[in-house]
């Protein structure tokens, strides 16, 4: 009998190899001494878990990242929404690693990101208020002025602000827009076209040595509205000096002062601010006014660069008035997208 068993199994009375293999597999599945697969799910992926917690912490305390070295804090805040793309990357790695620890840790960056930007993702319904405003950096090298005008006029806005106007382009835009916007004012490289009368126009000193901002009053049927149009200085990212934004930051201080001194209840600031609402350097302005996109927009409303928008640096901000909706317009011949907003004016009676 023993001989027969030995002949059939090819062993010295030991268990068949297939059976022993199956028993080892069961041991791993159940956490028995032979394997420990379930406990391993918690031991694996500790590095991924640490990365997930670090990502959550960075988004949570972004305002405390110092600007002393290369304006690192402002650079981070400019592209803060994009940090959410790291979550699916870590999720895939956690699934490949079969790490329960990493999966659990990912809950925190997801919660932080949704707290910061969930309202924009969910969005708001588009509706119209008392006043529709559009702002557009038309680009000094725009080769399609007629197409740009068609897009802007098609928005139905009562107020239309343009930035990066050249001396040659001003009369061309004035002529093309005259039928729809009988009133307009320009100062330096910025201008405002309006369906309502404008008065009290003056330049706003951005401490640049030339004019890139103005303040005027639009006499709307619901009362006067103080309108500021501004184009803050550009920023640069350099390997040796980091995020260069000193002149923009000083201009933001000057613009914030002008807004603070404005006596009218309803205030609107439109223009290319070369910064996002998350950028602390714009706080002299953003601390006084509300972003229409942040309050009533659908999606992030990224406006630059037009080919693949990565940041919203073209802004419509209001004080007194209530944002109703905010959106971007189709691409024109500029490297920026036009942005639009509808607002409800506060009663001034």
From TrEMBL:
Keyword Cell membrane among UniProt keywords: no
Transmembrane domains' residue ranges: 46-67, 79-96, 103-122
Signal sequence interval, chain numbering: none
A GO MF label: endonuclease activity
Domain spans labelled Endonuclease/exonuclease/phosphatase: 134-336
Record's keyword annotation contains Hydrolase: yes
Full protein name: Endonuclease/exonuclease/phosphatase family protein
Organism: Streptomyces evansiae
């Amino acid at each position: 009998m023993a001989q027969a068993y030995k002949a059939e199994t090819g062993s010295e009375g030991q268990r068949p190899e297939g059976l022993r293999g199956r028993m080892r597999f069961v041991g791993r599945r159940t956490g028995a001494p032979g394997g420990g697969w379930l406990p391993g799910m918690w031991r694996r992926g500790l590095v991924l878990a640490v990365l997930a917690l670090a990502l959550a912490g960075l988004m949570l305390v972004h305002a405390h990242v110092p600007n002393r070295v290369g304006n690192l804090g402002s650079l981070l805040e400019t592209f803060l929404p994009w940090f959410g793309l790291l979550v699916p990357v870590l999720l895939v790695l956690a699934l490949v690693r079969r790490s329960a620890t990493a999966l659990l840790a990912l809950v925190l960056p997801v919660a932080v990101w949704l707290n910061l930007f969930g309202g924009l993702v969910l969005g708001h319904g588009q509706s119209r208020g008392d006043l529709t405003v559009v702002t557009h950096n038309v680009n000094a090298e725009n080769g399609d002025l007629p197409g740009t005008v068609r897009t802007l006029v098609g928005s139905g806005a009562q107020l239309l602000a343009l930035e990066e106007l050249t001396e040659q382009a001003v009369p061309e835009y004035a002529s093309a827009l005259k039928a729809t916007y009988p009133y307009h004012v320009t100062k330096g490289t910025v201008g405002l076209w309006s369906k309502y009368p404008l008065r009290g126009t003056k330049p706003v000193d951005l401490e640049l040595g030339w004019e890139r901002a103005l303040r005027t009053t639009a006499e709307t049927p619901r009362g006067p509205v103080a309108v500021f149009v501004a184009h803050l200085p550009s920023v640069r990212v350099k390997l040796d000096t980091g995020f260069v934004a000193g002149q923009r930051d000083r201009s933001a201080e000057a613009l914030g002062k002008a807004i603070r001194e404005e006596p009218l209840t309803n205030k609107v600031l439109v223009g290319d601010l070369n910064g996002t609402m998350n950028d602390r350097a714009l706080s002299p302005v953003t601390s006084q006014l509300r972003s229409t996109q942040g309050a009533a927009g659908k999606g992030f409303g990224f406006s630059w660069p037009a080919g693949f928008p990565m940041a919203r640096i073209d802004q419509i901000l209001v004080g007194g008035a209530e944002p109703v909706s905010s959106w971007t317009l189709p691409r024109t011949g500029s490297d920026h997208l036009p942005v639009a907003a509808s607002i409800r004016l506060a009663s001034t009676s």
